[in-house]
Amino acid sequence: MQFLSESHGCCGWNGEMAERIRAFDWTLTELGRIDTWSNSLRSTVQLLLASPVPLVILWGRPGYMIYNDAYSVFAGGLHPYLLGSPVELGWPEVAEFNRRVLDTCLAGGTLSYHNKELELLRDGKPEAVFMDLYYSPVAGDDGVPAGVMAVVVETRKTAEESLLKFTRNLEQRVADEVEARLAAEEQLRQSQKLEAIGGLTGGVAHDFNNLLQVIAGNLHLLARHERDNPNVQRRVSAAIAAVERGATLSAQLLAFARRQPLSPAVYNPRHIFEGLGELLQRALGETIHIDMQLPDDPWCIHVDRNQLENALLNLAINARDALHGEGTIVISGANVVLDRAFCAGKGISAGDYVRLSVADTGEGMDPATLKQAFEPFFTTKADGHGTGLGLSMVFGFVKQSGGHIDMTSRVGQGTQVQMYFPRTERPQTRELPTRGAQHSGGHETILVVEDNEEVRSAAVEFLQQSGYQVLTAANGDCAMQMLLEGVAVDLIFTDVVMPGLIKSSDLASWAKIQTPPVAVLFTSGHTRDIISRNHQLSPDTHLLSKPYGPDALMAMIRNVLGD
Question: Which residues, in sequence order, are CB contacts of 166 under 8 Å at separation 6+?
Answer without folding.
Answer: none
